[in-house]
Amino acid sequence: MDLIDTNVFLEIILSQEKRAACEQFIERGRGNLGMSDFALHSIGVILFRYNLEAAFDTFAQEVVPRVEVFRLPHKEYASLTDIRARLGFDFDDAYQLAVAKAFGMRIVTLDAHFRAVHGEAQVLLLAD
What is the CATH number of the domain that holds 38? Predict the structure, then answer.
């Protein structure tokens, strides 16, 4: 299963430069896609900040039901500070990596920071 990073969804919702590549990936991966609860909440925070509540409603109605949402198991929270210490990741990237590791998923992202993962989890950079 693929864990879709927040930035992939935002690229589509906000009609940014790599939108087409992100849409194609998501369309091909239907039925095998996941997102973290943190990504879902982050998308809500960003869209509300920019008064894009209608875009959030559309996302919640059309995308969320087709994507499995994963929550980091409580026992894995301690790994976030370890990921920060080893890789220098901020909280959201550390959370994504921890979820991917906990559930054996590949991270799909536009974020080049994930090049630093080196075998801890599989990563597909859509920007490449």
Answer: 3.40.50.1010
Please spell the DSSP secondary structure of 45-83, one letter per residue: HHHHHTT-HHHHHHHHHHTGGGSEEE---GGGTHHHHHH
Of the candidates 105, 40, 116, the one whose C-alpha atom is nearest the C-alpha of residue 83 is 116
Q: Which residues of 17-55 are buried (b: 16+ CB within 10 A; e: fewer)?
A: eeeeebeebbeeeeeebbbbebbbebbeebbeeeebeeb
* Total domains in the fold of the chain: 1
User: What confidence score (pLDDT) does residue 120 get?
Assistant: 83
Q: Which domain holds residue 52?
A: 2-125
18 backbone dihedrals φ, ψ, rounded to 5°: -100, 20
Torsion sign across C-alpha atoms 68, 73, 77, 78: negative
| Model pTM above 0.85 | yes
Tracing tokens 């996941």 back to the chain, one arrives at 34
Which band of pLDDT confidence, cut at 50, 70 and 90, is reported for residue 31?
A: confident
* Short-list 111, 126, 117, 81, CA closest to 97: 117
